[in-house]
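_Full entry_
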Amino acid sequence: MTDGDTVRLLDFDDAGFGWHMFELATALYFVLREPDYETAKTALTEGYCQLRLLKHEDLQLLETFLTARGFTYLGWIQDRQETETARELTTDLISRACHQAEKYLSQST
């Protein structure tokens, strides 16, 4: 894709058919701990809704899909543990997955 004079690459690693809330979880996962997370979540969901309706019930599942996304990252590092990238990301991805799982479980009780 181009942005003015800049060329930007798309990473299709996560492309595929699946539940649309997983797409949103993937886009939001790495900003979960940022101070402007709620702003990012609102902007993403409002923009998404311009093209595809999200029901209230769909949005209620976001925490579930964020938690699932964290677990998929753990699987990603497990499958690639011999790579430098996986070794560099392991501590952060485990921390993020544990944080999200704790948040999810505390809301489910």
In short: The chain is about 65% helix and 5% strand. The beta strands are 2-3, 6-7.
